[in-house]
Amino acid sequence: MLPVNKEKSLNVTATTSLSPAGINACRDWYASSAGQATLARVQAIVSRMSADIFGYYALETGVLAGQYSFLQESRVASQFSLGEVLGEPVSIMGTPEQLPFVLNNMDLVVASHALDCSRSPHQVLREIERVLVPEGHCILIGFNPISFKGLAQLRYLHNPRAQRCHFYSTFRVREWLSVLGFDVCETVSAGFCPVFGGDYLFKRARWLDRLGSQFRLMTGNVYIIHAQKKVSNMTLLLPSRKVKPVLRPGMIVNPGAGRVSRKEPNNAK
Fold it and tell me: Measured between alpha carbons, how far is 125 from 117 in angstroms, rounded to an integer?
C-alpha cells in the first residue's frame, strides 16, 4: 500500500516550488551530447550505490523524476516517482519541499537536482529526512559549481536574478546533511568534459572523462552524494554512587517539631 500522507494533497497545481526555467535548462542540458554521456555515468554510479539497499519503498524525486530512471536495478520492492509538472509519466504529483508521504516510511530517496532548482533547499533535505526510515538511504544528484558547468554560471555574476539554478558545493551539502543527522557514505563526481563548444569540443575532450574517473577527481559537472539517516539511541545513565536514605530504621518524623527524633521504647520511664 502506498504510504501517502492524507494531510497533504496528492493533486497540486501547475505552479510548483521548483523553478520552471531551471527545470527546462537542466533537462535541455541532459539532452545534449555531454549531458547524455554524464547521465549514463550517473545512472551507473547510482545503481552501484543502491545495489545493497533493501526495503519496501523507494522514491525518485527532483527534475529528472519521470524522465529518466535511476532505480532500474534496485532491489527495493516498490518504487515511486514524484513529478513536478502536470502531465508527466510519474506515480504522484507533488513537490520536494512537501513530500506527500507519512513519517519514517521510505527506505531510499533519490533526488535529482532538487536542491539546484528549489527555492528552499534546506526544506528539501528536511523532507527527505522526515520520510526516511531510521538507517534509510538518500542519494543526491546535483550540479557541481567547481566544474566546467559551474564556470558557465559566471555569466550571471552581475545579474543574479536571471540565474536559473543555484549550484551548491559538495562541502556545503555534506554540512547540511550532517546537521540533519546523516552520515555521508560516499561522494562521487561525473562528467568532466566541457559543456560549451558543442559536439566538436566534446568529442575531442573525452579523455577528460577517463582522467577524472581514473583519479576520482571532484571537478565533474555533476556530483552524487550517498548518505544514510542515523538516529541516536538514548542510554539511561545510572547514578555513580549509592545514595544513603534520609531516614534510618528506628527513627520517625515529628511533624510538630519539624525535626527528626529517636523513637522511645514502650517501657521507658
Answer: 13
